[in-house]
Structures are given as structure tokens and as C-alpha cells.
Amino acid sequence: MEFKGKMKTANEIFNLSISRNAKPVEKLNDAYKKFMVRTMRRSKTVDDVRSFFYTGRHALGPQAKRTKPNHSSNAPLAIYKDTTSGDQIESNKSKPEFGSWLMLGGRAERNKENNALPGKWTAFKILLLF
């Protein structure tokens, strides 16, 4: 229970086992004393961290000072300019690509996989085994 952070439950278990005279008694008492020492140490560190006046970054350490970039606030923004002209892109779009999804064909051609092909009904025979 202690490693799960359930100190109250662990303390109750120790007290219950001591009240029922669990054996070996010496070993149980030594374990309980060590448990109490650990909980006292842990509670002191938790109280220190939770104080209202705590301003440091305990887990991550002190935060490094950030250097300010050398950009001035009035500097213009850099704008990306494409080197290819728009005419080349438009000419590529106007040419249809055969065999691609752009050429879907008519509705009948698109739905051809759903049309059953007629065949002989007598081609398949059912074997009856008695």
C-alpha cells in the first residue's frame, strides 16, 4: 500500500496486525517504526512543496533565462514567393490524365461491377448424397 501512496491504509494495516498480535512481533514492530520514519520524512517534503510561498521550479529545476531575438518590432515580415509561374500550373491541370481517377467514365461504366453477367443455369449441378 505504501508504494501506491496509500499511507493511511498502510498505517491501518500495521495497527490492525499489531492489535491482533501477528507473529513475529519484533519484525512487525521494526517494520512499523521504519514505516513511520518514511512517512514523517515524506510528509515534511510534501508540506514544503505545497506552501503558498514556494516559487521555485522543484521538478524541472530553475528555468533558463531566454535571450530575446535581435529582430526589431518594426521589421517587415519575409513573404514566400514561388519561383514557378501560375501559367505552368494551370496548363498541367487542363490536360486530362488517362487511366486516373479524373476520368471516371459514365454511370454505367462505373457501376459495371454490380451488374451480374448472365450465364447458363444448367452449368452448375447440385450433388445429392443419400
Would you write up a description of this structure?
InterPro entries: Bub1/Mad3. The chain has 130 residues and is mostly helical. It has a domain at 7-39. It has four helices and no strands. The radius of gyration is 40 Å and the shape is flat. The two termini are 70 Å apart.
Question: Secondary structure elements and their pairing?
Answer:
Layout: H1 7-19, H2 25-49, H3 86-94, H4 107-110
Low-confidence stretches: none
Strand content: under 5%
| Coarse shape | flat
Summing up helix and strand content along with how strands pair, one would put the structural category as mainly alpha
- Summarize the helix and strand pattern as letters: HHHH
* Span of the ends, CA to CA: 70 Å
Give a count of the beta strands, DSSP E runs of length 2 or more.
0
The residue-averaged pLDDT reads 71
InterPro entries: Bub1/Mad3
